[in-house]
C-alpha cells in the first residue's frame, strides 16, 4: 500500500467483503449514576484514606476545578471515575474531562465468569460514561477494545464502538485512537464526519470500500493518519490535507 504526497493517492489490491451501512440505534435512557460505579471498585489508596479521616491536610482538593479536571483528563477513564469517592469535592469532576481513554484491559482484574461477561461490563461502563458526562468538548478519545471471538455477530459487536466514536466526533475530538486486540473492528464510514478531527490512529479494523473517500469528505481538517493491521478494501485513496501518514502491517 503506497501513499503519494500532493495528490494523496493510495493503491491496494481489489476489495473484499465489507459490512452494511445500517444506522445505529439511539443511546439508551439515562441510568442511575451509581450503576456506573458498580463494577469499578476503588483500590486501596493511603492518600485517599488520610484525606478521608482528616489526619492529613488535603491540599489537592483545594486546587481549582480547572486544574483538577486537567489532571483527571490525563488518567484512564476508569481511574478518573473512581476519584468520585475520594471526597464530596471530587464527586462530579470526572464528568468534565476533555480526554476519554477507555481500555478493555482495565477490566481484566475483575473476577468474571468468562470473557463475554467482562465484555458486557466494559460496554456498560463506556455507555454509562458517555451518557453521564457533561456536554463539554473533547480533545482526545482513545478506545482499546477486545471483541470476544465466537460469541455473537462481529458486525453487531462493533456497533457500540461505532457509537462511541460518533459521540467523540460530535463533541469535537481532535485526536481519535482506536485499537483492538482480537477480531477486527468493523468501522462504518458514516461515523467519520467532523470538521475538527486532525489525528486518527486505527489498529486492527476492517475499513470497507469507500471508507477513505468518506474520510476525505467528512473530515476535511485531518492531517495525520496512522494505520496498522487493518483490512483495507479501497483501490484508490485520495487526500489533499494529510501532512503525514504512518502505517504498520496492512491486509488488502
TrEMBL record:
Ranges for domain F-box: 57-107
Alphabetized Gene3D superfamilies for the sequence: 1.20.1280.50
Source organism superkingdom: Eukaryota
Signal peptide span: none
PROSITE patterns from the UniProt entry: FBOX
Region Disordered: start-end pairs: 1-55
InterPro entries (alphabetical): F-box-like_dom_sf, F-box_AtFBL13-like, F-box_dom, F-box_SCFL_complex_component
Name recorded for this polypeptide: F-box domain-containing protein
Organism: Aegilops tauschii subsp. strangulata
Amino acid at each position: 500500500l503506497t501513499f503519494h504526497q500532493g495528490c494523496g493517492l493510495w493503491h491496494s489490491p481489489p476489495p473484499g467483503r465489507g459490512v452494511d451501512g445500517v444506522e445505529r440505534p439511539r443511546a439508551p435512557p439515562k441510568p442511575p449514576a451509581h450503576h456506573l460505579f458498580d463494577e469499578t471498585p476503588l483500590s486501596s489508596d493511603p492518600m485517599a484514606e488520610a484525606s478521608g479521616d482528616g489526619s492529613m491536610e488535603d491540599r489537592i482538593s483545594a486546587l481549582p476545578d480547572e486544574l483538577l479536571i486537567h489532571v483527571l483528563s490525563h488518567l484512564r477513564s476508569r481511574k478518573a471515575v473512581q476519584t468520585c469517592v475520594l471526597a464530596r469535592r471530587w464527586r462530579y469532576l470526572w464528568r468534565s474531562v476533555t480526554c476519554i481513554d477507555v481500555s478493555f484491559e482495565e477490566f481484566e482484574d475483575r473476577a468474571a465468569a468468562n470473557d463475554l461477561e467482562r465484555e458486557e461490563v466494559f460496554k456498560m461502563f463506556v455507555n454509562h460514561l458517555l451518557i453521564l458526562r457533561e456536554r463539554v468538548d473533547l480533545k482526545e478519545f482513545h478506545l482499546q477494545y477486545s471483541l470476544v471471538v465466537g460469541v455473537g455477530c462481529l458486525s453487531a459487536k462493533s456497533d457500540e464502538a461505532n457509537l462511541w466514536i460518533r459521540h467523540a466526533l460530535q463533541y469535537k475530538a481532535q485526536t481519535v485512537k482506536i485499537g483492538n486486540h482480537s477480531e477486527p473492528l468493523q468501522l462504518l464510514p458514516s461515523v467519520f464526519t467532523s470538521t475538527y478531527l486532525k489525528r486518527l490512529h486505527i489498529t486492527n479494523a476492517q475499513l470497507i470500500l469507500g471508507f477513505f473517500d468518506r474520510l476525505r469528505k467528512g473530515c476535511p481538517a485531518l492531517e495525520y493518519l496512522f494505520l496498522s493491521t487493518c483490512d483495507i478494501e479501497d483501490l484508490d485513496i485520495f487526500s489533499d490535507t494529510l501532512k503525514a501518514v504512518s502505517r504498520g502491517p496492512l491486509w488488502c
